Amino acid sequence: METLTDGRRWAALLALSLGGFGLGLTEFVAMGLLPDMARDLMPESYAASVPGALAHTGWMITIYALGVVVGAPTIAVITARQPRRRLVLGLLAVFVVFTTASALAPTFELVLAARFGAALAHGAYFGAAGLLAAAILGPGNQGRGVSIVIGGLTAANLAGVPLITVLGQNHGWRAAYLAVAAVFALSLLAVLVTVPTVAADPGGSPRAELRAFRNPQVWLVAAAVAVGTSGFFAVNSYVAPITTHVAGLSEAAVPWVLACMGLGMTVGIALGGVAADRDLRRAVLIGFAGLIGSVTMFGLTAVHPAGLFPAAFLVGAASLFIVPALQSRLIAVAPGAQLMGAAVNQSSLNIANATGAALGGAVIAAGWGYLASAWLGVALSLAGLLLTLLSFRLDTRTPAPAPTPVPA
């Protein structure tokens, strides 16, 4: 990789983070606009049953998550020898095309298909861009590299998602998704101009990437991520109806609740990247403990407006604090397959997204109340912690190999 000035280095990192910002918008703005999407795409169902229509429209979240699950490992295998910069540019182009299609598709089914197409590139982007950021920062900065790229996602939740939600509420959800497509186009241009060429892993190959799945620890850690973090998504997916139907606030308050959650995410990812580079195991355990505690607080206090906002902040902080540590953990147990390790983390997070949204919608549709999703989230996060403790126990018997250095 060419020698970079400090200004060029941070411009490149900002460009990669901008892609994460776009992904935060496209993934999370649906949570705040679910009622608008339900009214527009399924007016008869919405008129008959608001909770039922909202639960059905929740498939917008679930299908996106499933696309990430399928796309992340598949692209990791196909592009094992691709230079990371070229891969990132191609993925950003995919986002532009399919996000625009999501905004223009006339029916619920076609919007779902376009959302699925965009999602195929999501996990691979975070994996490739995170490794690219780590290479730009230099050795020993894997957690920071991940946190910088995902930091764009947290910034989206802090400022972008609330603003895009307001745009969607005032001008229609389709206008919101056209704005998201414009963010992806800007990120593509920024990466093209600022990010240097970084060679692909010289030992990378489809066979090497697939070899990671021979390690039982990869499956166990992936299960811990998928089950444990689904507790967050069970809550986050239904923030809008909880704000309006449980706390009794107007729709205008939804962006402010999302902003509090986004602020928490921003704080959490910044602390989590540093914590993961210092002590990976401790960072994972602290993250899961924080997630269980914060979701419990949400379930207890979200009925009151005074409790909803701080609880949303803490849930956001805990959910993102743990992400750099989980990705570093998967890379550590998949030596020689860095892109696959990062991709599996994204797939697992989006299995969590799909599971949390679907199960949360199921308990709501069953008539157990909107806050039932929070208590479901507590149980899921606790299960993730137990799987993590089992993984660490196996480490004491067969230590995990050290992570492979990021290629420079």
Report the sheet-strand fraction: under 5%
- Level of helix content? over 70%
Indicate the multimeric state: single chain
Total number of strands: 0
In whole angstroms, the N-to-C terminal distance is 6 Å
| Class computed from helices, strands and strand pairing | mainly alpha
Biggest pleated sheet: none
Which regions have little confidence, pLDDT < 50, spanning 5+ residues?
Answer: 399-408
> What form results from the Cα inertia axes?
globular
Task: Describe the structure in your own words.
It is built from 19 helices and no strands. The protein is mostly helical. It is globular and about 55 Å long. The chain starts with 5 loop residues before the first helix and ends in an 11-residue tail after the last helix. The model is unreliable at 399-408 (pLDDT under 50). It comes from Actinoplanes campanulatus. Its main location: membrane. The chain crosses the membrane at residues 12-34, 54-80, 87-108, 114-136, 148-169, 175-198, 218-240, 252-276, 283-302, 308-326, 347-368, 374-392. This is MFS transporter.
Task: Summarize the model shown.
The chain has helices at 6-41, 43-48, 50-57, 59-78, 84-104, 108-119, 122-137, 142-171, 173-194, 206-211, 216-228, 230-236, 239-246, 254-278, 280-301, 305-321, 323-332, 338-365, 372-397.
Keywords:
single chain, 408 residues, 19 helices, MFS_trans_sf, MFS, MFS_Efflux_Transporters, membrane, MFS transporter
